[in-house]
Amino acid sequence: MSRNRWFLFAFFLCGCDLAERSVSSDQGGPELLVFSPEAGAQNVVRNPILVADFNQRLHPSSIQSANLRLISGTRPVPLALRWDMVESRVIASPESAAGLKAGVIYRWVLQNLQNLRGEPQSEQFVLQFRTGSEYDEELAASEPVGFAAVMPIFEQKCAIKACHDSAERSVLGLDLSSAEGIRTTAIGMPSKQFFRSTAGLGGSAGARTLSDLAILDVLAAQGRAARSYLMYKVLADPVILGEPMPPPELGLELDREELQMLQSWITQGAPTE
Fold this sequence. Notes:
four-stranded antiparallel sheet; 11 strands
């Protein structure tokens, strides 16, 4: 499956009838809210997109193939995994372009997932479905999210006076007013703030692994939004230190479309050309 298909699917799901949800800040491990396909579904396409929505954000280190397994009998099926931190959603699809076998029962097993404080889910979840013979070829690829799409977000909501308008005047030296400023003060640069959990909220080993985030985590043109501190700040995640960005009193919070654009741009390597 192409990376662009993931981006299209994320935007497609944002427009569906799922209820608006806020990420829970209560103690306790992640709980499953919504999943697809439905349990016991029949005639599922051979190249399904598997979706699991949670009540809180997951620790990025727990989103791995060992914890999100698709099984037929005793044989695992390799999955391509994506974590949508805006929607608190795991998205998975068979790695093989050939898809799954027709007329076979599969089980999607979700286990050992943790929240950002390192607290595990309370119980294993198993979704069982049977494939049909059809193969879905209708999802078209979307265009990548380029710098021209995200720069207005930075200009209008981040690079405002006395916030992040220049490296000399901005808070913590973070300049989001230009491509050069983003390259020199954000991409690959360590965050000067840390997660609240490292200062005593839970203080678990799982949470402490997130104390070394880059502002924008990009290496060799590959980005990791879930390890970029900027994403947690604009999402107003309850585990961050300091106030969300932009400050709530300014009334400039990013909407869901803007958050999705920013997440996709980082995942594509945060291009600034």
